[in-house]
Amino acid sequence: MKEYCTEAIVLDKEDLRELDSRVFFYTKGLGKVVGKATSARKITSKLNAHLEPLNLVQLRLIHKNNFQIIDALTIDRFSALRHPDRLPQILNLLTFMKEMTFEEQSDHELWSAFKEILYSENITYRPLLRSLGFDPQFALCDTCQEKPHYFIAQDFSFCCQKCLTEASNNKVCLKSYIPLS
Ligand SMILES: [Zn+2]
Prior knowledge:
This protein has helices spanning 46-50, 87-100, 108-120, 126-131, 161-168; strands spanning 2-15, 21-27, 31-37, 56-64, 66-76, 150-152, 157-159, 177-179.
């Protein structure tokens, strides 16, 4: 049994059986981590409020077959980003981080970029894509080789506005299109 203590940003929380939750984090020390919280949904659970998506927390975990959340303490909850107008954009960002990263592969550059975006309150994917090895700076639209406006998370390609419009006519899932500006 090993204990870990690291800063983490809560990406997602899923309810499990009874009162347990499964929580997805992007952490400074371990990269993406999926931790189980036992009885976290109890109304009396102190932990529950700290495990809300978007919270930056000081996280304590133990690893025994899987990760169990021992403690989480909120450092910042980024209240300004929780405005209803901004929430869809934030949820997309959290989903992006959940889907584009690997468990237990720490990446300090990606961690810093992610944290900096939240503190700057300016949602841009460019530094994240750069850290993940998909630098948009020299990328071209996969279809027409022009300057791209979107990153397509489904197949890690780039797409311009014109080709996106054409693709939308073919009912492509728009949610996985990441705006570059
Ligand atoms: Zn194009």
